[in-house]
Amino acid sequence: MAKYKQIAEVLKQQIIAGSYPDMKLPIEDALMNEFEVSRNTIRKAIDLLAELGILYRIQGSGVYIREMEHDNTINASKIRGISAEFADHKIKTKVISLDLIEATTEIAAALKIDVGSLVYDIKRIRYVDDQPYTIEYSYFNKEVIPYIGKEIAESSIYNYIEDDLKLKIGFADKYISATKLTSSEALIFQQAVGDPSLMIREKVYLSNGELFNSSTVFHNYQLAELFTTATK
């Protein structure tokens, strides 16, 4: 994990523990000394927490901590995944299937590749505190992501892409809608056929604009809640 991400996680835990009762972070120089890193690394850690809605800056005054009103929710404005969103919880992943297939017309259109190109077809159930939270149907372009094995799929694929493959995930298009569960999804969520589900279709790109992932994710309506931070 990148150093600034490690620092961001430490700061997050300190915030949760109430280490900053005045709701303000120490100045950058103090944080640089505490973590023995450069100013740029500290700023990247702060930027990451600001993007998550945990911190905010007031020019000329400092960095302040927002009241945490969105615990146990998914930040719809970020590309993080279950492992990062619920880092303080027990996360388990069950891989239903993982196959290397040739892209059909539909898959090729979704990933903007040629029909017949090789893609990883992955179906997973993500559990949070032993409760089925999401069902994920994902396609990864093998030309961009050359290998995904079961061990990787059982963990965080995004962490693998950034930390092991050294690729930078840039942005995603997300389409959020309500749908009804089919029999297979209802069985996993232990709900009734036709019960509602929050569905997110997303296309994820590297920072260079290259599309590498197309996914459809069904969320357990009894557990899932989304939030986003809006700006003017």
Secondary structure elements and pairings:
Blueprint: H1 3-16, H2 28-35, H3 39-51, E1 55-58, E2 62-65, E3 74-75, H4 82-85, E4 91-102, H5 105-111, E5 118-128, E6 131-141, H6 150-153, H7 157-164, E7 169-180, H8 183-189, E8 196-206, E9 211-220, E10 226-227
Parallel strand pairs: 3-10
Antiparallel strand pairs: 1-2, 4-5, 5-6, 6-9, 7-8, 8-9
Helix pairs in contact: 1-3, 2-3
Structure characterization notes:
This protein has helices spanning about 5-15, 30-35, 40-50, 80-85, 105-110, 150-155, 155-165, 185-190, and strands spanning about 55-60, 60-65, 75, 90-100, 120-130, 130-140, 170-180, 195-205, 210-220, 225. Helix 1 (about 5-15) packs across helix 3 (about 40-50) and helix 2 (about 30-35) packs across helix 3. The relative contact order is 0.13. It is about 30% helix and about 35% strand. A six-stranded antiparallel β-sheet has the order 4-5-6-9-8-7. The chain has a two-stranded antiparallel ribbon with strand order 1-2. A two-stranded parallel ribbon has the order 3-10. Strand 8 (about 195-205) and strand 9 form a beta hairpin. With about 230 residues, the chain is of the alpha+beta class. It folds into two domains: about 5-65, Orthogonal Bundle (Arc Repressor Mutant, subunit A), CATH 1.10.10; about 75-225, Chorismate lyase (3-Layer(aba) Sandwich), CATH 3.40.1410.10. The chain is globular.
